[in-house]
Amino acid sequence: MPLEIIIPGLIVAGFLLILVEIFLVPGFNVFGIFGFVIVVLGIIFAYTKLETRIANLILIVSIILAVVVIMVVTKSKSWKRMVLATDQQRTAGFHSSAEHLISLLGKRGVTKTTLRPAGMALFDDEKVDVVAEGSFIDSGKPVEVIFVEGNRVVVKEIKSDEMDID
């Protein structure tokens, strides 16, 4: 069998293995790796064993085939099942936790667990993961949020002499 048939057959077999990986055995498994390796080896063999003109043609056809495979895969029903298509809009109740936590700055609450230095505190009936500023803080102690950075909420214990008397 001539190499002009074997080498393109290798490349097509590689693409078929990649399609098997995508549709039949999802994940990053042996089929996808072998498929990619076979495609690359087919192109390398084309340049080492065939005329440059034929090897260039095989490379161009391989690139076109790769683009077609990508287009077919992304429009398939299987792809739609694998990819999350919904948005997480604020109107649907989703919000960035960092934005929400910034609103806690300066609020006072009570520790629900001992902060060693991390634990839980309650602010306006909402449990929040917090970190103590210095030493440990026992459960049930009043605290104030003094710093928020990303998802990290830092609190300090409010001593009895710092309590607001209304």
Question: Secondary-structure blueprint of this entry?
Answer:
Elements: H1 3-23, H2 30-49, H3 52-75, H4 77-82, H5 97-102, E1 108-111, E2 118-123, E3 126-132, E4 142-149, E5 152-157
Parallel strand pairs: 3-5
Antiparallel strand pairs: 1-2, 1-4, 2-3, 4-5
Summarize the structure in short:
This protein has about 170 residues and is of the alpha+beta class. It has helices at about 5-25, 30-50, 50-75, 75-80, 95-100; strands spanning about 110, 120-125, 125-130, 140-150, 150-155. A five-stranded mixed β-barrel has the order 1-2-3-5-4.
Tell me about this structure.
The protein is an alpha+beta fold and 166 residues long. It folds into two domains: 3-82, no CATH class; 97-158, Beta Barrel (OB fold (Dihydrolipoamide Acetyltransferase, E2P)). The chain has helices at 3-23, 30-49, 52-75, 77-82, 97-102; strands spanning 108-111, 118-123, 126-132, 142-149, 152-157. Strands 1-2-3-5-4 form a five-stranded mixed barrel. β1 (108-111) and β2 (118-123) form a beta hairpin. α1 (3-23) packs antiparallel against α2. The longest helix has 24 residues, at 52-75. The protein is rod-shaped, with a radius of gyration of 30 Å. The protein starts with a helix and ends in a 9-residue tail after the last strand. The mean pLDDT is 86.
